[in-house]
UniProtKB/TrEMBL annotation:
It is found in: Cytoplasm. SUPFAM superfamilies: Elongation factor Ts (EF-Ts), dimerisation domain, UBA-like. It comes from Candidatus Kinetoplastidibacterium crithidiae TCC036E. Associates with the EF-Tu.GDP complex and induces the exchange of GDP to GTP. It remains bound to the aminoacyl-tRNA.EF-Tu.GTP complex up to the GTP hydrolysis stage on the ribosome. Keywords: Cytoplasm, Elongation factor, Protein biosynthesis. PANTHER family: ELONGATION FACTOR TS, ELONGATION FACTOR TS, MITOCHONDRIAL. This is Elongation factor Ts.
C-alpha cells in the first residue's frame, strides 16, 4: 500500500477544502495520485449532496448586484437558500451568492435551469453548487431571481442579507436608497392602487363587510364603514400613500413630487418568504438518537 504522508493530505485539503480524513481516504484509494483523489472526493461529495437535496432549505441570503452596461442600469436580486442561518454566514456560501448575482447580471439567463447551466469557474453553476453542498454538508438551492435592465436609475438596499430591494426610478439620485430602505421597512404590495389585485381587494372587502355588519349599524353606515376600511387598507399597502419613514409629516408621493422624481418599479425579496418551515423538536431528535 502506498504510504500517504501528511504533506500530501494537506495539499489535497488545500485544493478541495474537504475534511482531512476524507482527503486521506481518497489518497489511499488513489494510491497517492492527487488528481485521482480529487475525482474521488468529487464523487463522494456529490453523494453527500444528493442526500442533502431532500432536506428543506428555508434559510439563506439575498444577493444584490447593480452595474451600468451599455448606458443601461442593471439590477439583480437573487435568493439562495440553505438549511441553517449558521451556513448563511459561511464565507464560501456568501461568495457563492455574490458571484451568482454577478453571473445573472452579466449573462441574463432566462430562468433557474438556464442559470444552473452557465459557467462557474471551470464547471457549471449547478456542478459548483453540488460540490459546495458536499463541502458544507447542507442543501443549497437557488430559489428565484429577477433582473432589471432600465434606461432609468436603479438603487438597492440589502438588510443583513435577509431582505433585498431594487428600485427603478427617475429624478433626484439621492432618493434611491431612501426609497429602497422605506420599501424594506414597510413591504408595500404595489406602487399605487392600480397594482393591487382584485383578489386582494375582494378579500379585504369581505372582511370589512363582515365586521361592519356585525357592528349592528344601519345599512347606509355599514356601506360607509366598508368603504372606509378599503381606503385605509389601500393607504397602508400602496407605496405612494404610505407615510415616508424619514419624514412622517409627508407621504412618499409628496416626497417624490418635492424632489421632482418618480418610481417606476420595485422588487422586494425576503429570505424564506412563502416557504413553509418545518418545526424541529431538537430535544426529541437527540433522545431518539440516544435510544438507537
Amino acid at each position: 500500500m502506498t504510504k500517504i504522508n501528511a504533506s500530501l493530505v494537506k495539499e489535497l485539503r488545500e485544493k478541495t477544502d474537504a475534511p482531512m480524513m476524507e482527503c486521506k481516504k481518497a489518497l489511499i484509494e488513489s494510491e497517492g495520485d492527487i488528481s485521482r483523489a480529487e475525482e474521488i472526493l468529487r464523487v463522494r461529495l456529490g453523494s453527500k449532496a444528493s442526500k442533502a437535496a431532500s432536506r428543506l432549505a428555508s434559510e439563506g441570503l439575498i444577493g444584490i448586484y447593480t452595474c451600468i452596461e451599455n448606458d443601461m442600469s442593471i439590477g439583480v436580486l437573487v435568493e439562495v437558500n440553505c438549511e441553517t442561518d449558521f451556513v448563511a454566514k459561511n464565507s464560501d456560501f456568501i461568495n457563492f451568492v455574490d458571484n451568482i448575482a454577478k453571473i445573472i447580471a452579466n449573462k441574463n439567463p432566462e430562468n433557474i435551469d438556464a442559470l444552473l447551466n452557465l459557467q462557474y469557474n471551470n464547471d457549471t453553476v449547478d456542478v459548483f453548487r453540488s460540490e459546495l453542498v458536499g463541502k458544507i454538508g447542507e442543501n443549497i438551492s437557488i430559489r428565484r431571481f429577477e433582473r432589471i435592465s432600465s434606461s432609468n436609475k436603479i438603487s438597492s438596499y440589502n438588510h443583513n442579507g435577509k431582505i433585498g430591494v431594487l428600485v427603478d426610478f427617475n429624478g433626484d439620485s439621492s432618493i434611491g436608497k431612501d426609497l429602497a430602505m422605506h420599501i424594506a421597512a414597510t413591504k408595500p404590495k404595489a406602487i399605487d392602487e392600480s397594482g393591487i389585485s382584485q383578489e386582494d381587494l375582494a378579500i379585504e372587502k369581505s372582511i370589512a363587510k363582515e365586521k361592519a355588519i356585525n357592528s349592528g349599524k344601519p345599512k347606509e353606515i355599514v356601506e360607509k364603514m366598508i368603504e372606509g376600511s378599503i381606503q385605509k387598507f389601500l393607504k397602508e399597502v400602496t407605496l405612494v400613500s404610505q407615510q415616508f419613514i424619514k419624514n412622517d409629516k409627508q407621504t412618499v408621493n409628496q416626497m417624490l413630487k418635492e424632489k421632482n422624481s418618480n418610481i417606476n418599479k420595485f422588487i422586494y425579496y425576503a429570505v424564506g418568504e412563502g416557504i413553509e418551515k418545518k418545526d424541529v423538536d431538537f430535544a426529541a431528535e437527540v433522545a431518539a438518537m440516544r435510544s438507537n
